[in-house]
Amino acid sequence: MNEMLIFKSMKAGHTMMNFSKRFKAFMKSQISENDLSFAEGVTIVSLLETDGLSAEMLLRKVSYDKSVMTRTLQSLEEKNLVMRERNPGDGRSWIFTLSEEGTSQAKFVMEVMKKWSQIVCNGMSESEIENLNAILEQLVENASKGE
């Protein structure tokens, strides 16, 4: 990779960090009124998409470290948003599912995420959004090779 391309890719990395920071700030400002942290919001949305996941499966899905996921799941249990039961396939682990209130909160978080998507994709065509998704997926794939 030549020097100019390296500089441009570093600028893209800085832009992605800025975008991520703004996304988290927006989400926190919107979901904190429902007494949810960003990590809790991401976790319950993941369970809304695929209910009945182990902590390990959730870790892989949301890319948090184990200590953050443990604290997040404990907090969600205390708030009665998730329930846990022994994993029938592995008695050493737990399966987490959304409670009725957890499902309601997850749907609220999804609406906030939709609002964010409408804000940031304003003025973009469908093909531009599809291209952006393809580029972001390629970046994630490339990044996972570097881990």
Description:
The chain contains 6 helices and 3 strands; from the N terminus they run H-H-E-H-H-E-E-H-H. By secondary structure, it is mainly alpha-helical. A 3-stranded antiparallel β-sheet has the order 1-3-2.
Keywords:
globular; mainly alpha
Write the layout of secondary structure elements.
Layout: H1 3-31, H2 38-49, E1 53-54, H3 55-62, H4 66-78, E2 82-87, E3 90-98, H5 100-120, H6 126-145
Antiparallel strand pairs: 1-3, 2-3
Helix pairs in contact: 1-5, 2-4, 2-5, 3-4
**What order do the SSEs take from the amino end to the carboxyl end, as H and E?**
HHEHHEEHH
The overall average pLDDT, rounded, is 92
The first-to-last residue Cα distance is: 20 Å
Strand arrangement in the largest pleated sheet: 1-3-2
**Care to count the β-strands?**
3
How do you describe this structure in short?
The chain is mostly helical. It has helices at 3-31, 38-49, 55-62, 66-78, 100-120, 126-145; strands at 53-54, 82-87, 90-98. A hairpin with a 2-residue loop joins strand 2 and strand 3.
